[in-house]
Amino acid sequence: MNFDKMTWVGLMIVALGWTLLLSAPQLSELLARMSGRALGTTALDAVAIAECTILSGFGLAILGALQTGFGATRCFLDAALTRTAPPPTKVVGPATARQKKIAERGWVKDRAYVLFVDGSVEVETMLGRRLFASLQDAQEFIA
């Protein structure tokens, strides 16, 4: 599984929080000795800090995983849209400004399509009108 930097940092913060939680009694005692004060209400609440650190680390790790997942989904959708994009038209002169000749009209899985003489197909998809190289490509995209 591929994790990004934010996920790894979050998991490291979780490990730091667990280390702090497991060593909280010793840490509080050490801080009390170093400061010369007795343990009381002014003592550092290491357990609460450790719990917050663990929760923050898990939150950061989850955000990193979501960012990676949505990035993969975006790449997939970009590739699908690029694949179905109409081919660029060459502008040679006024002859290319004419409309393509329609060979057939029909329906593919309750979606209207127009088949042109050159074999290309225009289909009304959920993403708008799309031009496909062939009727088979259109059917694969809709399925």
Structure in words:
Helix 1 runs antiparallel to helix 3. The longest helix has 38 residues, at 46-83. The protein has helices spanning 5-22, 24-35, 46-83, 135-142, and strands at residues 102-108, 111-116, 121-125, 128-132. The chain folds into two domains: 5-83; 94-142, 2-Layer Sandwich (Signal recognition particle alu RNA binding heterodimer, srp9/1). It contains four helices and four strands. With 143 residues, it is of the alpha+beta class. It is rod-shaped, with a radius of gyration of 31 Å. A four-stranded antiparallel β-sheet has the order 1-2-3-4, covered by helices on one side.
Give me the number of helical elements.
Answer: 4
Number of domains: 2
Coarse shape: rod-shaped
Order of helices and strands: HHHEEEEH
Biggest sheet, open or closed, and with what strands and sense? 4 strands, antiparallel
Provide the helix percentage: 40-55%
Strand content: 15-25%
Task: Give me the count of strands.
Answer: 4
Stretches where pLDDT is under 50 for at least 5 consecutive residues are 91-97
Query: Structural class per helix/strand content?
Result: alpha+beta
Instruction: Determine the mean pLDDT.
Output: 79
How many whole angstroms does the radius of gyration measure? 31 Å
Q: Tell me the distance between the termini.
A: 29 Å
Major sheet strand order: 1-2-3-4
